[in-house]
Amino acid sequence: MESASQSRQADKAKPLISIKDIAKEAGVSICTVSLVLNNKDRNRVSKAVAQRVRETAQSMGYKPNSVARTLRTSRSYALGFITDEIATTPHAGRVLVGAQEAARKLGYILLTVNTGNDRELENQEIAALRQYRVDGFLYAMMYHRVVKIPAELEGSPTVVVDGEDENRKIPSIYPDDEMAGYDATNRLIQAGCKRIVYYGSSITIIAQGERFAGYRRALADAGIPFDEQLVVNVEEATNAASEAGRVFDEIKPDGIFCFNDVRATFIYEAARERSVGIGTDVSVISIDNQPLITDVLKPALTTLELPHYEMGFEAVHQLVAMIDDGAATESLARSEDSIRRSENGPMTPLRCRIIERDSIVS
Amino acid sequence: MESASQSRQADKAKPLISIKDIAKEAGVSICTVSLVLNNKDRNRVSKAVAQRVRETAQSMGYKPNSVARTLRTSRSYALGFITDEIATTPHAGRVLVGAQEAARKLGYILLTVNTGNDRELENQEIAALRQYRVDGFLYAMMYHRVVKIPAELEGSPTVVVDGEDENRKIPSIYPDDEMAGYDATNRLIQAGCKRIVYYGSSITIIAQGERFAGYRRALADAGIPFDEQLVVNVEEATNAASEAGRVFDEIKPDGIFCFNDVRATFIYEAARERSVGIGTDVSVISIDNQPLITDVLKPALTTLELPHYEMGFEAVHQLVAMIDDGAATESLARSEDSIRRSENGPMTPLRCRIIERDSIVS
DNA sequence: CTGAAAGCGCTTACAG
DNA sequence: CTGAAAGCGCTTACAG
């Protein structure tokens, strides 16, 4: 006999009951219990017995032991959530919330791990996750970028969140920044703006290129000629303030599409200094919907929200689809002429939602 | 024989090797392998054999199967991280990062779960976590408050993060808001301020009472009489702006201690409207260190940072101490005259760090 | 110093 | 329709 009371606080908890206990109580074998509780009893167990087993399990408060099940079946219903760094922005943590919610609904649980962009740590954590026999991996980035999937993940179901696999092979969920740029610019055009500044980023991340492309497409669709002079790319820490001033002093636009909310604050500041009325004299729109900023700016900033929650949610859905039906997903990812997903292959850009407030002239 | 190839992408991965494989390769029994790999081989296995086993394990790239170990030992080295809602502020997610880092260092892994303050969901998730046989629970709140521990957690090692157990029985880690109020006020006093406004919160959360208490203590320590007129408690959404104006128009202080960074923005705004120079005419300090705010405010705001990372880190440390040595921790928690922790019992307030910037007159 | 055996809780062919 | 048995990978008394 093994030590009956390991010195742990947990021992005070009520004892966990197993299918063996139920079998004894219901007067059947454990395999009958297993069959019934897994709903595999059709044509195998009499209705009466099945009913009795279910009631017994219910009344005894039976909860299956996931660990034992995992050992036996090699399916853990656990997903590894790997992130470089969570919560740099208030919204980034929402991808974890979305992922967690989807996982719960699908009967999965999330094991989360931060790596802080340290490749060695990342490998170490992936190994740890494997020891726990996770069924698949979410590889979540802090912001939309091209990612190199760690070789350690090879062969395991994986989906990239807020990033794009460099080879466009691994399913990737990310914000549709081109569409966001289009929608933002188009919103300004709908408000009657003719001379729209793109107040962008001089750092060349994906979002910058895509949003700018969306800006140009919206202009083109509206028949407004593109003017290089209206593009002002800035860096937050250096020239954002001076360039914002130049926007008003030299360019004098009727609409401004800001790369993000932080940049919008520079536009607000410059407008205030010049007594230009945002929402009255000039329309402003941006992207991010950072609560701390939108709370404070007046007039309230109209902006697009990145689909963080949705990315997490969708990623888990796709991952579980791969796990539950690997063969189908595999062939899907391989065939170029697949019917579903034909356009983007395994890539899933998600649209951003516009949050209407008061910074656009109506 | 069971189906050799379940249709899962994971099957492409290299096969997992077990102690059985090592035993065969090294020509010993599996129990010898187990003993050696768990470092329980002293006086039980010859050095030569032990060495051979280790080398074999190494060369075969053996990783123990946590699931099998858990089933056998009832110890999962997994912790349940329960949170009401992650990432409302950029910093809140840092508690998860801190917890995760501590967990990794101690050989544990985190299963995270969000409940969105839904009590029923919470119970459901706790049950799920139990099915995975977590060794203990972190019960993390979004902000410092008194918490009622769910009955479902009873009997399991648990520590509260960013909250205080209402019964002061369950170990709780939270920011030392009284000390933060003291440190902030004292910083102003050190800068020569004599007439210090407390620009606080009219919502009575813990932090408000504590920071105000710290404010009064710092005043008392410095021999500055407390003046009720200098206390201005506001609500962000309603009277913050008008009251900030009143601070300058009627009270005319030389120092202002703001409850948080968001409130500081109202003070900045009011000062600007009146051409009062922050950092030159009046000193301002606050609490939160919200990057999005401190990035934008000029002059840069001196503020105290809440120890989010540290709370997560410390909580995991205490939880693991309970798990590894339950008996000791139990007696500790019960004895009123314990030597360690005598002062606060199971409560651990953590000090906030001051981030010096340019809003205090030097 | 080393190995055979039991068992953690479950699932799954297989035999009846 | 139901049960006995094997086995997932590990640990741990126990016997030698």
Automatic annotation (TrEMBL), chains A, B:
Keywords assigned by UniProt, alphabetized: DNA-binding, Repressor, Transcription, Transcription regulation
One Pfam short name: LacI
Keyword Transcription: yes
PROSITE patterns: HTH_LACI_1 (PS00356), HTH_LACI_2 (PS50932)
Domain of life: Bacteria
Gene Ontology MF terms in the entry: DNA-binding transcription factor activity; transcription cis-regulatory region binding
InterPro entries: HTH_LacI, Lambda_DNA-bd_dom_sf, Peripla_BP/Lac1_sug-bd_dom, Peripla_BP_I
Coiled-coil blocks: none
HTH lacI-type domain residues: 17-73
Gene3D superfamilies according to UniProt: 3.40.50.2300, lambda repressor-like DNA-binding domains
Listed name of the protein: Transcriptional regulator, LacI family
